[in-house]
Amino acid sequence: MQQPDSPARHYRENLAVEMKAASRVTVIGMILDAFLGVIKVLAGTLFHSQALLVDGIHSFTDVASDLVVLGVMKLSRQEPDENHPYGHQRIETFGTLVLGSILIAVGAALAWENTLRLVEGNIDNIPEWPVLIAAGVSVVGKEWIFRYTRHIGQAIRSDLIIANAWHSRTDAFSSVVVLVSTAGAMLGLLWLDVLAAIAVAAIIIHIGWKFTWDSVQELVDTGLSPDDTEMLKIIARSTDGVLNVHELRSRRMGQDILLDIHLVVRPEISVSEGHQIGMQVVAGMRNALENILDINFHIDAENDEDLFPTTEKLPSRAEVGGIIAEHLGEIPQRSRLRLHYLKNKLHLEIFLDESDPETVFTPENVRRHLEGYPWFGSVRVWVAGP
User: Fold this and answer.
1) Are 204 and 58 in contact (CB under 8 A)?
2) Domains and CATH numbers, the chain
3) H-helix or E-strand spanning residue 157
4) What pLDDT digit, counting tens, does each position of 294-318 carry?
5) Average confidence (pLDDT) over 158-166
6) I need a surface site. Which of 29, 57, 341, 350 has the fewest CB within 10 A?
């Protein structure tokens, strides 16, 4: 049974607000990245710092990633439609995968180029003091945009925005490396500048791999952690009316969680009581994990994992009614029939109105006529009181 989902409605109602916040922080970051990229590339080229030049290229990859983020966010924050009833958040996950792949490719190319320079020993230029100023400005600017972007990403629950924030943080880290290596190179250790360039490239590769791996995990529907899964099972089992829980399955879409769960209840309860029990389980799970977007629960009268669950095709209500009418006559109009399908057997309950005259619907008589059918399990006859 799929439940009306207030968090899902809340999510859809805030799509425009989230998109506006994501676009604003991304555009601000993109302008800053472009500014720092120009400063670092020029300073690195003019004042002989390979590390700062690589760091500037890193900043320009931030500009490219910001453009990817803007496009992906616009697509992923669309409202659910007929073809995408759960929304479009997987586009965001794919965008994060692309961003991570770009970082890995850029980092690998830069690492290879500077490794060759280090091995060949073709290092004869000493970085000059403007390199220190450019790197210092980069550290301050990128640390600020990292904190601002991460705050927005957490507020709108966007993995892509958070990933982009950490992309900015890597630029701040790399600029710190440039500061240290430049100081060392100016003191005579020229190889430190190239070594720092390789270190910056390694940082880019590491962050890119993390983004890529996390995105792949989500795209292949990796579930919640064993601890969170067990916690949700305990919540369900402790709910009044739940006898057992099985087949709890989970997956993620961005920051949101989707759940499917089977709840075993007493077989004699009504459909509405089973539904109410399920709603109590839903409420308990939502209180435990606030980012659950959707919960589908299935009410079971028996554990499907038992040795002999109901798997065979048993007669429908209409077929049972016809068989009873053939042997015993029609069930009185004011009376009713309740069916229980358990362990490949059909168990009957017949509720007779007290105003009905004496009938043939006694337990012994019904059993005698139906026990020859392989599907017959048991029968109980009730007579309504005044």
Assistant:
1) yes
2) 6-219 (1.20.1510.10), 226-300 (3.30.70.1350), 317-383 (3.30.300)
3) none
4) 888 988 888 766 656 666 788 998 9
5) 77
6) 341
The per-residue pLDDT for range 110-132, each reduced to its tens digit, is: 788 778 767 766 556 667 778 78
Tokens of 291: 């980012």
Token pair listed for 351: 């509720």
Q: Strand pairing partners for 339?
A: 348
For 200, the token pair is 């910056």
The per-residue pLDDT for range 345-363, each reduced to its tens digit, is 899 988 887 665 556 788 8
Give ∠ CA 350-353-354 in degrees, rounded to 5.
125
Q: Which residues touch 194 (CB under 8 Å, ≥6 apart)? A: 50, 51, 114, 117, 118, 123
Query: Within the chain, where are the H helices?
Result: 6-13, 15-46, 50-76, 89-120, 130-155, 159-186, 191-219, 226-237, 271-288, 317-328, 363-370
Amino acid letter at 135? A
Distances (CA, A) of 105 to 3, 16, 344: 44, 33, 58
Helix (H, G, I), strand (E, B) or coil at 355: coil
Three-state DSSP at 292 gives: strand
The rounded radius of gyration (Å) of the Cα atoms in the chain is 33
Question: pLDDT > 70: what percent of the chain?
Answer: 84
- pTM comes to 0.58
Task: List, edge to edge, every strand of the sheet that includes 244-253.
Answer: 244-253, 256-264, 292-300
In 3D, which of 263, 272, 339 has the Cα closest to residue 300? 263
C-beta separation of 259 from 232 below 8 A: yes
Residue 2: predicted pLDDT: 47
Q: What is the sign of the dihedral through the CA atoms of 288, 294, 300 and 302?
A: negative
Residue 27 above 90 pLDDT?
A: no
Give residue 4's pLDDT.
Answer: 47
For residues 149 and 164, which has the higher predicted lDDT (pLDDT)? Answer: 149
